[in-house]
Design goal:
heterodimer; A: about 210 residues; alpha/beta; Rossmann fold; 2 domains; six-stranded parallel beta sheet; 6 strands; about 55% helix; globular; B: about 425 residues; alpha+beta; Heat Shock Protein 90; 14 helices; elongated; disordered N terminus
Chain lengths: ~210, ~425
């Protein structure tokens, strides 16, 4: 059973997600153990309940979802960011802060359940939009051989996977399209996530800044 | 003791907005004024009926002029209660854009003023008859009336400034405010009265040349004062200008917020009216969401005629027209030119087809723009069809998409499987800009 904590500053939204998850998940597959409305209560609730997955709102009183992940430090709990904001800074910032995925609040119940399951299993969850941001961030080849070259550039396969995700393909469809297994797709995704989180590539920050300026 | 209701309101708003106790300050009342609003403001501050305060002023004025001095002093030091309006954004915005009734000019109730004026005049006559015609009396009265008139005009101009935020502060406006004949008349009448007051004083004192000297001395005094105080006033006015710029900015923000809330309210009302029709509700909600998202997160700013902007516009159009949900992801961007326009048109056709025929109401659009090439993918998970079985005369796919793309040097591929959805893949090479 996957134990979930919902963190969002809108009570109505928490209630909605709770209802949605309860309705969409198979009986006994998911348990919502707590919810929280700001950074301190979220940190306390997560420390107390040690959930498998935290649905984390990006904009949160007390410093945002990133602050929750920062205060908790390394933990077994996995975070799935959930937000109405499509701003690139928010998305990339949250992923770099430690979230294993990013979905917008308009996601349907079954999709959310699937995403939670995926995150609980240690995989990454990329919405088409997030995939687009990743492609944008890693776009263009940097000529200078960076120190951490493998971190600073997507492989051709990873790029392919990202493009298919951005086109709206499901994991299974991606696998079929590229003649690889779903497991391999997941490996690629996790690898992209790692690069996104660890890359010190200056282009990435500059890109984010540019986006803000646009 | 009678408490004016306005005071109560002030207290309530004060305690609700500020956590700590604020010092209560008296202000001049700009709504209930005959002269400077001092009496009304003071009455509100002290919680007394305004008539008592007015009578007290007139009485003390009659008895040795103390009231006049007090009134003048208070007029100088008390700030007007006319401040930057602190209304809810929607109301303030509506007020500014003229959607709410403005301040009503109090021309109707002149009766009490005339009565008070007559009373004052009577007292003056009485005092004169009792104490005899003093040499100083009429000059002083003339001077005071002149000063009062000029101050009254200053008040008008000040109110004008508070109310009107759109313009820079210019000195003439600061002086004359609304620039009606009344404002000019007040200033000139005031000045003339002061001068004639001086003249009367001099004439009763004796000879004409002395009178001229006194008038000249008074004039020089005014000039000297202007030189001393001028720079300070000028700086003050520039401060006011900055303050106004700040205010304009915050008003613009408030206006946008109000507009936004307005649109949300409209949508909510429409949703309630259409509660029985899920498709309409979803379409309304989606359109509103897009609207808010665009504004709130500024990510989807209009960058003019770029391909990303064009696709966003298409997204909105298809969502609004067909009630579909379109997830549009754009990587890279390029201005729309003659190479890009055909692919945008073809994309529109593909999106329309997907919205009309797929039957799922969900479309994924992905555009990848590199300096040399634009690729756009339009995907749905709908019913799909067999591309080879489409009749030759079906214009939609062949004419608008494939033929159009090929005519302009691009490519179009339609991949569809019955039952598994359709994907339209469009590609267009861009001319390398080498020059």
């Amino acid at each position: 059973m996957t134990r979930v904590v919902i963190v969002d500053d809108h009570a109505m939204f928490r209630a909605g997600v709770r209802a949605e998850l309860t309705g969409a998940a198979a009986p006994g597959a998911l348990e919502i153990v707590a919810d929280a409305e700001d950074v301190p209560t979220a940190v306390a609730a997560i420390r107390e309940h040690r959930p498998d997955v935290v649905l984390l709102d990006v904009h949160l009183p007390g410093g945002g979802g990133v602050e929750v992940m920062r205060q908790l430090g390394t933990t077994e709990t996995r975070f799935l960011a959930l937000s109405v904001s499509d701003a690139a800074e928010d998305v990339i910032g949250t992923i770099r802060g430690g979230a294993r995925g990013y979905v917008t609040k308009t996601i349907t119940g079954p999709e959310l359940v699937a995403a939670i399951k995926r995150v609980a299993e240690g995989d990454a969850v990329f919405s088409p939009r997030l995939a687009g941001f990743v492609l944008d961030a890693f776009a263009g080849s940097i000529e200078v051989a960076a120190v951490d070259e493998d971190l600073d550039r997507l492989t051709e396969r990873e790029r392919e996977v990202m493009r298919l995700i951005a086109r709206g393909y499901a994991y299974k469809e991606v696998a079929k399209e590229l003649f690889i297994s779903v497991k391999t797709v997941e490996t690629h995704m996790s690898s992209v996530l790692r690069k996104l989180q660890l890359s010190s590539r200056h282009e990435l920050t500059r890109w984010a800044n540019d986006r803000r300026l646009l | 003791m009678v408490r004016a209701p306005a005071l109560c309101d002030d207290c309530c708003t004060m305690t609700s907005t500020a956590p700590h106790h604020e010092v209560r300050r008296a202000t001049r009342d700009s709504t209930d004024n005959y002269l400077g609003g001092v009496a009304a403001g003071l009455a509100r501050h002290l919680g007394l009926p305004v008539v008592w305060v007015r009578v007290a002023f007139i009485l003390t004025a009659a008895l040795g002029g103390m009231g006049i001095a007090m009134y003048a002093g208070l007029w100088m030091v008390l700030p007007t209660d006319e401040r930057f309006s602190d209304e809810a954004p929607g109301l303030a915005s509506a007020s500014r854009s003229g959607k709410r009734p403005g301040r009503v000019r109090r021309m109707a109730d002149m009766g009490p003023t005339i009565a008070l004026g007559a009373l004052a005049f009577g007292i003056v006559i009485m005092v004169e008859s009792v104490f005899g015609r003093g040499a100083l009396f009429w000059p002083v009265v003339l001077g005071i009336v002149g000063v009062a008139l000029i101050w009254r005009q200053a008040d008008e101009a000040q109110r004008e400034r508070w109310l009107d935020s759109s313009e820079r502060l210019d000195p003439v406006k600061a002086m004359f405010g609304s620039r009606t004949w009344a404002s000019y008349a007040r200033i000139f009448a005031g000045g003339a009265l002061i001068l004639s007051g001086l003249g009367v004083f001099a004439l009763t004192g004796g000879r004409l040349d002395v009178a001229r000297e006194i008038v000249v001395a008074g004039f020089l005094g005014v000039v000297g004062l202007a030189l001393v105080v001028g720079p300070w006033v000028f700086r003050l006015s520039s401060d006011l200008g900055q303050e106004r710029a700040e205010r304009v900015r915050s008003q613009e923000r408030a206006d946008v917020a109000a507009h936004l809330h307005d649109s949300v309210l409209q949508t909510l009302a429409l949703i309630q009216n259409n509660a029985h029709d899920p498709a309409t509700v979803a379409r309304l909600a989606r359109a509103q969401e897009r609207d808010l998202r665009t504004w709130l997160f500024a990510e989807q700013k209009d960058e003019g005629a770029s391909i990303a902007a064009a696709l966003r516009a298409l997204t909105a159009e298809v969502e609004d027209t067909y009630g579909a949900t379109v997830e549009t992801v754009v990587v890279g961007d390029v201005p729309v030119n003659e190479h890009v326009a055909p692919i945008v048109h073809a994309t529109r056709e593909a999106m329309t087809n997907a919205a009309k025929h797929a039957g799922t109401g969900k479309i994924d659009v992905y555009a990848e723009v590199s300096p040399s090439r634009v690729e756009i993918y339009v995907k749905d998970r709908g019913v799909g069809f067999d591309p080879s079985s489409v009749a030759e005369d079906r214009q939609g796919v062949r004419g608008s998409i494939v033929a159009r793309m090929e005519r302009h040097g691009g490519s179009a591929e339609i991949r569809s499987t019955p039952g598994a959805g359709t994907e339209v893949v469009l590609g267009m090479p861009l001319q390398e800009e080498k020059s």
